[in-house]
């Protein structure tokens, strides 16, 4: 079976991709073809193994598409109504997160362009110091120093802003009390 079928695997994968089959389904279809072929007693009676393989794959792909179109319809009862409640964050949490993001952006804006790029590449993109150094054409020591200075500066600005926020609130309350 291997001599008759394996040489066509690459062509089969390309043919399936061209037929707009998702990549994860391509693998499933190819594996399913192999499973079905393994169950055959012999492939000697198959005149054209390539055509047999492609026909089998086409049929499997069509069956997967049909199954994907079927949408189960279930009645909405009292227990289902409970499921309609959103698991997403509450509006006040969303607003607080946006404010925090604005504070981080403001802190990032105070850094030099290189320090900001290093910080983002390290902390957001997760690149190593070596990768950043190569990308920016600087030494790893420069990356390490800029990254640590940037982090300290951002944390200092965020903690200073946190310390000033209660004072601003107290001042606002005393003005309202007048």
Number of strands: 0
Rg value: 30 Å
Which structural class matches the secondary elements? Answer: mainly alpha
- Runs in which pLDDT lies below 50 for 5 or more consecutive residues are 172-178
**SSE arrangement, N to C:** HHHHHHHHH
Shape: elongated
- Total helical segments: 9
Separation, N- and C-terminal Cα atoms: 92 Å
Largest sheet: none
Helical proportion, percent range: over 70%
Give the strand content: under 5%
**pLDDT averaged over residues:** 80
Fold topology:
Blueprint: H1 2-5, H2 9-18, H3 23-39, H4 49-69, H5 78-83, H6 91-109, H7 113-124, H8 129-136, H9 140-177
Helix pairs in contact: 2-3, 3-4, 6-9, 7-9, 8-9
At a glance:
By secondary structure, the protein is mainly alpha-helical. It is built from 9 helices and no strands.
Description:
- The termini are far apart.
- The protein has helices at 2-5, 9-18, 23-39, 49-69, 78-83, 91-109, 113-124, 129-136, 140-177.
- Helices cover 76% and strands 0% of the residues.
- The chain is mostly helical and 178 residues long.
- The chain is elongated, with a radius of gyration of 30 Å.
Descriptive terms for the model:
76% helix, mainly alpha, 9 helices, single chain, elongated, 178 residues
